[in-house]
Amino acid sequence: MPTPRKGDGALSDALAELKHRGSKAGRDGMARYGLPSDKAFGVSVKEIQAVAKRLGKSHTLAGALWKSGWHEARMLACYVDDPALVTPAQMDAWCRDFDNWGICDTVCFVLFDRTPHAWKKVDAWARRNDEFERRAAFALLWGLTVHDMDAPDARYIHGLKLVEKAARDERHFVKKAVNMALRAIGKRNAALHAEALASAKRLAVATSESARWVGRDALRELSSASVRRRVEKGA
């Protein structure tokens, strides 16, 4: 592989490599999963990660990749950006660009949940009206359950309040992320498991059809013997 260049050359090289690794079969596969295939090369996540490993970290390159608008370039931006250099303004700008679940979740899981601004954005984005912007709040909360090992339980208990409010949102990509955040919080530890179970039980009998689905689906997993053993073991 050639040595990564700086500036515009690095962007050109990265886009050329993504294009080379893409395929029609890859684009067709993306379309089947509801991912955009019109401005996409058809590159697998595994291959995007390989390109990122070769390029290394570059906040400047990440910004250029994002501005290119190509789906895989934006995915690559998540892996090459430096979380310590990501600003709240950048997070808001990228969030406004989210137009599918794949890029929303990847940005939140790979990059945004490692920034010092993540918790504030959970609160802010939970109030957004756009489907993928609101999804981002709960994808971010979901990611934090895995990657922020030092966060106090109080933050996740507050997150459960946001979950209960947003569970009434009938839109598919919102309620799916809300459900995953609820389940993830409930698997953190025994105390949060109890709190999440209580939230799920309230939602399971709510008047909203969406809220009932979120609650009942979460109850099935959180009530399972495997999850109970997991949280009890970690207590």
Question: How is this fold's topology laid out?
Answer:
Elements: H1 7-21, H2 24-32, H3 45-55, H4 59-68, H5 71-80, H6 88-97, H7 101-110, H8 118-126, H9 131-147, H10 153-166, H11 172-185, H12 190-204, H13 209-222, H14 225-234
Index terms:
235 residues; mainly alpha; Serine Threonine Protein Phosphatase 5, Tetratricopeptide repeat; 2 domains; 14 helices; 71% helix; globular
Folded structure, characterized:
By secondary structure, this protein is mainly alpha-helical. The chain has 2 domains: 1-81, no CATH class; 95-235, Alpha Horseshoe (Serine Threonine Protein Phosphatase 5, Tetratricopeptide repeat), CATH 1.25.40. The chain contains 14 helices and no strands. The radius of gyration is 19 Å and the shape is globular. The relative contact order is 0.08.
Compact overview of the structure:
With 235 residues, this protein is mainly α.
- Shape verdict: globular
Low-confidence stretches: none
Indicate the CATH class of the largest domain. Answer: Mainly Alpha
Structural class comes to mainly alpha
Calculate Rg over CA atoms: 19 Å
Q: Give the helix tally.
A: 14
Indicate the CATH architecture of the largest domain: Alpha Horseshoe
Measured as a percent range, the helix fraction is over 70%
* Average pLDDT, all residues: 94
How much of the sequence lies in strands comes to under 5%
Count structural domains. 2
CATH topology of the largest domain: Serine Threonine Protein Phosphatase 5, Tetratricopeptide repeat
How many β-strand runs? 0
Please give the alpha-carbon distance between the first and last residues: 48 Å
Question: Which sheet architecture does the biggest sheet show?
Answer: none
